[in-house]
Amino acid sequence: MAERDGGEALARPPRGPALYHRARVAGAAFLGRRPRPAGTLAGNGRLARYYNLYVAPPRYGPEQRRTLTTSDGVRLNAWLVPGPHDAMCTFVLVHGFVNSSRSPGVHRFAHLLARGGHVVVPDMRGHGGSGGLCSMGRNEPLDVAAAVAAAPPGLPVVTVGTSLGGAAVLLHAGTYGGVAGAVGISAPAWGELDRVGTHRVRKLVSGRAGRVVLAAALRTRVGPDCVYLPDAASVVANIAPSFTVVVHDPDDWYFGPAHAEAIYEWADEPKALWWYPGLGHGGDLLVPELADRIIAETAGRLGGAGGVSGEAGPVSAPPTN
């Protein structure tokens, strides 16, 4: 048995076919789909997708690794991707639930954003190489705060997050401030279970058996006292005068369009709502066009020239803890 923070013991992760079987069932639950019979998945690329996401995700350079500590004492794994020598800002890119800094889409998007600024990419608590337990939004703003504090000095910081990470950056910006802007991608506005996907997630995180599956198959460690997505209504307006950008697919299968519309209404100017129909949820929206648009929007908000700069330049390393 392996000991976790919070005193909860988890079974040692299964290996080989047992690991994949557990992963495909959990993945199907997250998508709100019935898992296909064993033997039908390898041909359609799901096994390869699981391998790329959780077994052999892309790597950053070893010199880019940082170790952060949150104000409540959780050790976080993070990476610093240098931007151009004339970087206009530092982006803090925060992944979603059951992902990490090394998820292929997050890794790729970090390097796309690095064409306009430096990028700090943390693993939220309970995810990837970080310690602690995921709290489903209650404590994750502290992870964002630690990543913001690790940004190279002398430049404004813009936070960008997907799904749970989107909620975390909005809650952080509205509660703690200290950023030039916050971009919430597929971010929930509240914890209401209004879609099949959210019902499935709640079922998994609410019981010990589900948390064991998450830890063993998807490498996400959720605390037994987790709360489900704090309501952002009381804090989003506080992001101003920094800018707020809300990015959403109106057909998102976890959080419907009412979430994006509510966050946009709660926010004060300057603000923007960008719809991306048909792209999906969270990391699905991390496409090159969105990276270019965030870079251009940030440049415009900060009074820069916009566009993409050239070669990466040196970055002074933030302190590690």
How would you describe the overall organization of this protein?
- With 321 residues, this protein is an alpha/beta fold.
- The chain has two domains: 9-56 and 194-226, no CATH class; 60-191 and 229-314, Alpha/Beta hydrolase fold, catalytic domain (Rossmann fold), CATH 3.40.50.
- Helix content is 32%, strand content 15%.
- It is built from nine helices and ten strands.
- The strands form two sheets. Strands 3-4-6-5-7-8-9-10 form an eight-stranded mixed sheet, sandwiched between helices.
- Mean pLDDT is 83; it is low at 1-43 and 305-321.
Give me some keywords for this one.
321 residues, alpha/beta, Rossmann fold, 2 domains, 9 helices, 15% strand, globular, disordered C terminus
Class per helix and strand makeup: alpha/beta
The low-pLDDT segments are 1-43, 305-321
CATH superfamily of the largest domain: Alpha/Beta hydrolase fold, catalytic domain
CATH architecture of the largest domain: 3-Layer(aba) Sandwich
SS summary, helix count: 9
Overall, the morphology is globular
Strand content bin? 5-15%
Helix and strand run: EEHHEEEHEHEHEHHEHEH
**Cα distance spanning the termini:** 29 Å
Helix content: 25-40%
The count of strands amounts to 10
The Cα radius of gyration reads: 19 Å
Counting structural domains, the number is: 2
According to CATH, the fold-level topology of the largest domain is: Rossmann fold
**Average pLDDT for all residues:** 83
Largest sheet: 8 strands, mixed
Which CATH class of the largest domain? Alpha Beta
The largest sheet has its strands arranged as: 3-4-6-5-7-8-9-10
